[in-house]
């Protein structure tokens, strides 16, 4: 069973451990110092930033992290990607990692992505789409998106998380299903 809750400051020790795992560090390339994790995850944990960071639990045990935000809340990111692909107003993006190395390669990623996309339609009733850029070389990530029902809509030239990588990204999208709750009145 997949559940989640907002990341709390007490989770930072676990996040540091996950970010240091080779399979995560390869793509997230994040400083794992106590100060850096507090700096980068603290504002969302305290509700001071519009992004949402979630600790994903599988059968009650922490296994993954999902970040979700609206492109509109991050103008620089919106501008960079918006020059290269259509980004409808209120579109949402997610980022994710399987932190527990014992859970990698078990098909957990697509299930988590599907669950978060479904929750997005409820949590963000005006979001028309979830759009996810992913580095082209990160096959495991873009295959998880495809298995979760997102479709590749193009490519983008974006700054990579890891400076050793080139700028090639695939862009994936899934639209709000017809009939799913939205922020507009329906007759």
From TrEMBL:
It holds the Pfam family Acetyltransf_8. The keyword Signal does not apply. It is an enzyme of class 2 (transferase). Keywords: Acyltransferase, Transferase. SUPFAM superfamilies: Acyl-CoA N-acyltransferases (Nat) (SSF55729). InterPro entries: Acyl_CoA_acyltransferase. Its EC number is 2.3.1.-. One of its GO terms (molecular function) is acyltransferase activity. This is GNAT family N-acetyltransferase. It comes from Streptomyces noboritoensis. The lineage of its organism: Bacteria, Bacillati, Actinomycetota, Actinomycetes, Kitasatosporales.
């Amino acid at each position: 069973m997949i559940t989640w809750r907002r990341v709390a400051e007490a989770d930072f020790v676990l996040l540091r451990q996950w970010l240091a795992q080779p399979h995560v560090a390869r793509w997230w390339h994040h400083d794992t110092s106590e100060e850096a994790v507090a700096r980068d995850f603290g504002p969302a944990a305290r509700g001071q930033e519009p992004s949402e960071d979630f600790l994903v639990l599988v059968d009650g045990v922490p296994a993954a992290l999902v970040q979700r935000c609206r492109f509109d809340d991050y103008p620089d990111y919106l501008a960079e990607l918006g020059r290269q692909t259509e980004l409808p107003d209120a579109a949402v993006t997610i980022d994710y990692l399987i932190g527990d190395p014992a859970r990698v390669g078990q098909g957990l990623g697509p299930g988590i992505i599907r669950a978060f996309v479904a929750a997005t339609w409820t949590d963000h009733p005006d979001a028309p789409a979830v759009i996810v850029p992913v580095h082209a070389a990160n096959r495991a990530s873009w295959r998880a998106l495809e298995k979760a029902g997102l479709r590749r809509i193009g490519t983008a030239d974006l700054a990579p998380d890891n400076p050793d990588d080139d700028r090639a990204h695939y862009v994936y999208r899934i639209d709000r299903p017809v009939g799913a709750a939205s922020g507009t009145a329906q007759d």
